[in-house]
Amino acid sequence: MRPEILNPLFAALTDLKGVGPQLAKPLARLGLERVVDILFHLPTGLVQRYPADRLDDAQVGQQIIVTLTAQDYRSGRSPRAPFGVEAFDSAGDHVRLVYFGRTAGLAKKLFPLGEPRQVSGRLDTYGEMRQIVHPDHVGEPGDPAIATSEAVYPLTEGLTNARLSQLVEIALERRPELAEWIDAPLLASRDWPAWREALTRAHASPHDAAARDRLAYDEIFASQVALMLIREGLRNRKGRAIVGDGRLTGALRLPFGLTGAQARVGREIAGDMAQDVPMLRMLQGDVGSGKTLVALRAMLAAVEAGTQAALLAPTEILARQHHATLQAMLAGLPVNIAILTGRDKGRGRESTLMGLADGSIDLLVGTHAIFQEAVRYRDLALVVVDEQHRFGVAQRLMLTDKAARPPHLLVMTATPIPRTLLLANHGEMDVSRLDEMPPGRTPVDTRVVSVDRLDEVVGGLERHLATGAQAYWVCPLVAESEASELAAAEGRAALLRERLGAARVGLVHGRMKGPDKDAVMARFQAGEIGVLVATTVIEVGVDVPAASLMIVEHAENFGLAQLHQLRGRVGRGTAKSVCLLLRSQNLSETARERLALMRETNDGFVIAEKDLELRGGGELLGLKQSGDADYGLATPEQLVRLLPVAHDDARLFVERDGGVEGPRGAAVRLCLYLFERDAAVPLLRSG
Ligand code: ADP
Ligand code: MG
Which helix (H) or strand (E) segment is 382 a member of? Predict the structure, then answer.
């Protein structure tokens, strides 16, 4: 339960006076639903206003404060035309105050004829005439002066800066006095303000680095503490020691031997599983590095020990593909493998549930459905999670909460996560790396091509298909909406159908029903479709060796890690593979460098580290997309810089200061609740 002292901050914004459904809508668009969201919605800029005695002192384009008196109103011919207030300064010079969108009533109220008003806004001209469009503040001359400097917030339609600033005031008033949770010597050495003061300062100025760092630090620290508490909590619970006898892994008939990396990682995993402390391990390995086999061997060890194992895939398609692959590898072995997804219903589902409960099913592959309430395992000892970004800390907790003895957990990812972010989001895990590719692969040839050469690209695609090879065409990631993303993909598919013939082009997108999607995928896998147009990364997460051309449109809109993963979809067969990154004509310097990096290296880890470096403090988009970060406040730059400090402090807190039961406990607990990393709190108590 959240400590009472924080309740005022977690009230819904609609509970505030004057915030109705009309205002709630734009606020929600910005992710602002509770008072605390406003508190952490920090300004991105500052307006400076120039107080002018008269209009002649000010320049066009300047933000000014000036005293004006309305002499007349000017209605447009139609009610939709802008409404004007003809106003004059102390020297009698004219300016028109312009109001759009049926706001005549408001304008008349603000400017009674003949009465002076203090006005702020941007001075513009319209032809020969001076005007101010929608003055941002209007007050009585005697009122406290309009601020000469004001913070500017990220806004959306239907929400003005003035309105948001008022909400910020309210949120700031609601801040409780909280005990300091940062380690005292650290706080002193950094010259950071206390939490309350940091908020005041961060809202007053986006340039207050100390205040902003303090707040970002709080968020990172809360995250680190949560991860450590989870680890501690789990480490304090007894798991089950699993030692396979090798009778199943030894019987696997494979056309190849293990790579050195697969063998090494296999030993690391076996070593963990042999302990009665639950394993918490992440397996990192580029696309195609052979993670599936590593997972299978670990799962077979569990079966050898008389227990069950489950493999969680991010999507239906991948679950089915894993199931088929594993089933083929297990042919002839006495292992019973089943699949369970949201789409399995009725009799089939019932019998799978029974098989899991009575232990006749050894291995289960599926989507998140495998952890639903109704699913009971006889003895689940190992859970493998494949490429599941949304499998966040909360899910990890839920998983381990369910079993009396928490199962061993292996999380696999092909997303090359830089070290810093690994610590940031998976700091509680041990890490294994598959840093060696199976032999016989030719690196993918990557080229960056301007989108104005689309015609040539389609021509090249046509020749490519003529050789009997296949291709992927990934459509631009459109930020605004899923609908426009879909429209873009449909448009592209239509164009390709026109050029290449309808039968050779398939389309998969997020709005399609599972079976329809699978049908298209199956036809692509069978080679009946030449080019597969897709909207999202996940949908193409499949293994089709004959696909040796990957085309990504608007490549600059993707995170590098995503591009790298997309590229990994080709180069799986023996044919030489090509990846074409189509870019827009106008690219920023950073975007250029990022794409060039893709051309220069095939090493996912190099790409990940460099990407973080290139993005610096700016663009959070890529981080969000790749699912690496769960941070609302800290920028990537702050994350990189402050994380090591937060990590050390979190460790001090847990190991030296007695954790949530120690003297700093109460304060840190508040911080955890404030940043909603509270799921970790109960864990340590029970530990
Ligand atoms: P990942 O899941 O890491 O992207 P996969 O497990 O799907 O990679 O493996 C990619 C391909 O490499 C598969 O076709 C698999 O059969 C093959 N493979 C795995 N291990 C080896 C190996 N040691 N030698 C040769 N091929 C391998
Ligand atoms: Mg895989």
Answer: strand 380-386
